Every structure is written in C-alpha cells, then in structure tokens.
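Figure S7 source data.
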Amino acid sequence: MHKKYGDVFEFYIFKKRIIMLNRADLAENNVLKQSIKSNYFVRALSRSQGWRELGLTERGIVLNAKFKTWSLNRRFLSHCLGATKYIREIFNVAHNRFLEAEQYLKKVDDNTPLEFSKWFHCLTVDTKIEITTGEKTYALAAYANSLLPPHLQKPVPESSIQSYSEFISSLLYRTSVGRYFTRTPAFLRHHVPGFKHIAERMKKKVAWLDEEVKKLVRKKKELIASMDDKEELKMDLLTLMLTTNTERDTNKVKAREFEEPLDESEIASILIEVFSGGVGTITTALCFTVYYICKHPAVKSRLVSEIDATLSADDNTLTYDSLTTLFPYTSAVMKEAARILTIVPLAVQIASEDDEVAGYKWRAGTTIGVNIGVIHKHEAHWKDPETFRPERFLDEGGDEIQPRTFLPFGGTVRVCPGRVVADKLMKTFLILLFSKFEVELCEPDKELEYAYTLANNCKELKVYLKARITEQNV
Ligand code: HEM
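Tokens for the predicted protoporphyrin IX containing FE complex:
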C-alpha cells in the first residue's frame, strides 16, 4: 500500500482511523522512543472491548494498559530475564533438549519429509516450558514417535505437568480466543446463541488455564519454602520471579528497586504471556531462517564453514562463551532472515497527548501504526532491500545500518523484553542443527507458506535431514 499512497497514509478499519508510518525517520522522535515517558505507551489492541472482556488489559504485560502495573511487571520480568545465570541456564537447557531431539531425528529415515514447523514448535515448547517452570515436557518425543515404526519408538515419560498436552494447547489457544473476541461483535458474543456459546466456552478455557498456572505457581512456592536455605534453587523463570526481593533472591539488584515480591496472580499472567508470546514467534523465526539458508546455497556453505571451523577450534563443542562471542556470520544470517520476512510487521499505538508526527499535527487518541515490515524493506533505508544478503549485517565490511530501521523485536516503549532469550535459543538450535545435519528443502521451488494473525506464522516447511559425518559428529 505504501507504494501507492506514500510514506504516510491513513486508512479505516471498522470506522477506526489509523495513521500508518512507513519510514523509520518519520517515527523516530516519538512513536519509536523507548522511554517510559513515551506518549505511545498504550497498544491499540488494549482498546478492544474483546480483550477487555477477557480481563487481559489490566494485568500482565502484553495488553496491560495500566501504566503502574505494566511498569512494575515489566521491570520484574526484564530483571529476571537479564540474570546472567539464567541466560546461561537457557543455553544449557536448549543445548540438552537439542541433543535429545538429535537422538530421535537420527532414527528417522533420511527420505522421510519432516514437517519443520511442527518439529521446531515441539522443540521450542519443551525448551520454553523447562526454562520457564523447571518442568520437563516431551512434546518432541511424542511427535518423533508418531514418525517412527513401533519398534523404534521410545516410551514418552509421564510429564510432571499433569496432562501437559491439554496445558500446552490451552496456552496456544489464547491467540484464537483473542481473535474471536476482537473480531466478533459484542452483541453477537453476548446475545446470539451460537456465538454466545462459543464465547462462554472460550472464557471457561481461559479461566481453566489461569487456574492451572496459579496452581503451578503455588506448588513452586511451597517447594521453595520447604527447601533448606543452603540448598541451591533451580534456575527457572518462575523460581526467579518468586524469589526476587525475598531472602532467597539469587539475583539481587540495588536496594529498593522493587518494593516487594510480585503477587501470585500477576506472576501467573506473566508466565502465560511469556509462554504464549515466545513459542509461535521463535518457531516461525527458526523456520523462516532455515528456509532462507536452504534457498541460498552460498549462504549455507559460508554458515556451515563458520560453524565447523568455530566448533573444531573449541574441542568440537558448543559453549556458552563461544555462542555469545563468536559466530558473526550466523548472527548476520539470523538478522537478515528477520529483516526480509518480519515476524511482527506492525506496532500500533495510541497517542496519549496531542503531537506532531511526520510533519502533521494529531489529536490525543489518534491511532498510529509503525509499519515495521515495510521499514525493513524501504529503499531509503536499505541497499537492494529485496535481496537476501546477510553480509550487510557484518561488523566488518557490512553496510551502515541506519538507526531505528531494524526492528524485529519492535521499537516502541513496549519493545520485546524477551529478545535476548529468543536470540540465544535460536542461535543454539541453528548452530547445532547445521553442525549435525545436512538440511534440504523437500520442495525447493515451493513458496514459503505463512499466515498473518497479529504475527506471521509459518504454516508448513518440509525438509529432509541427513546426519553429517564430521569430526564433531563421530
Ligand atoms: C523471535 C522471537 C520473538 C519476536 C520476533 C518477538 C517480537 C516482539 C514484538 C515485535 C513485540 C512488540 C514490541 C513493540 O510493540 O514495540 C514483543 C513484545 C513482547 N514480547 Fe516478544 N518476541 C519474541 C520472543 C519473545 C520471548 C522469547 C519472550 C519471553 C521470554 C517475549 C515476550 C514479550 C513480551 C512480554 C512482550 C510485551 C512487552 C510490553 O508490552 O511491554 N517475546 N515481542
């Protein structure tokens, strides 16, 4: 649309006017300011009656429109996600979960097409549940068994989260609930039998999930209380959130950063958001990255050479230190994939005060959208924007990247607090994948299949995997 209507245009959805900004410099002084004094704190989605009715706009983080609780919850979460010990633990869990997955993958016949969006989804679910709650789930093992003949299947251990598949599907179901509540008019949801029945069933499921997560929080709280003070605590997000600002705090910050521990129901809301916000995005980002790597043989070959050379110089193992300081080309490839196909292509905020944006004066209450997907490919910001060229992101010999033009994790005051977690998880998985397997697209000429619902979601990515015979894999 911006090609036809220019870098600033307005349009209407259900009589609601939205001003769309398609160049980073038009938004950099106001909407794209990451200050808590920003006038663009409220997400447009939080104004939807549907989300309000689900009770999600006054708690947690993602849709919370109440500055005070949002700010406290967000600082708490960022504080916990930023703990060095926690980031290291994320690496350990991701590494171990991948090695487990490798055992299953090696049993699958080289000629069996693997549905990678499903595979990465299961791997991400298992890893995220473990780093978030400390519980082990076996989504990937169950999926692998479905591909194997009976004699090669491994029994799936009983999960410590009761009926975890129901738990996981309810977590992911929240997106569909949100879609229904925002798209179906309130009159239908409240008064017309078929619609009303669906809305009530969905609300019950959301309430069930809230209760299950609160139970998990209470169980962990009791476990921590029953432990000896000297016993080392598990390094998962729930433990960190429960112990921050208590006697057992292992991640102390300066005095009085937080007045008191966070309350149980806010912790439950945040856990649900961290989970449901991170799984689909990471799965899709991994699929898109693998797709672009496989579509560009020269990129694949340089990536694999970097991985092989770096691992063999480090005893053929991937360590946390090498993950964070080496692999510049792998990082550049991940960035270029995130640029060329943006996972969350829009940030839509509401102005809390009258303002001048992009040379025009707007009233408080105006809805302003930053078109990240377009900014990522704008000729004013990028050389040959349609070309997949990771080299542009290299520190040495790369292009000069203009400020605020690369926004895969958003760029407003609500910028993603999970970006380091996402980066570490994805990089670990990609390095291990390409070091251990030859990856080929089953249908190299087929277009990537994805659909947009608040974020882009990969619908299908079929690949063949063949174990590589290299020094590090013998
Ligand atoms: C590739 C993976 C991910 C992508 C592409 C992504 C992208 C985004 C984007 C674009 C936003 C909105 C930013 C804005 O409005 O300016 C966001 C918000 C958020 N993300 Fe992520 N995210 C990812 C992974 C994660 C993970 C792993 C977590 C949790 C550990 C997470 C937690 C959140 C939360 C809580 C918010 C809401 C922040 C707020 O409203 O203050 N995300 N994410």
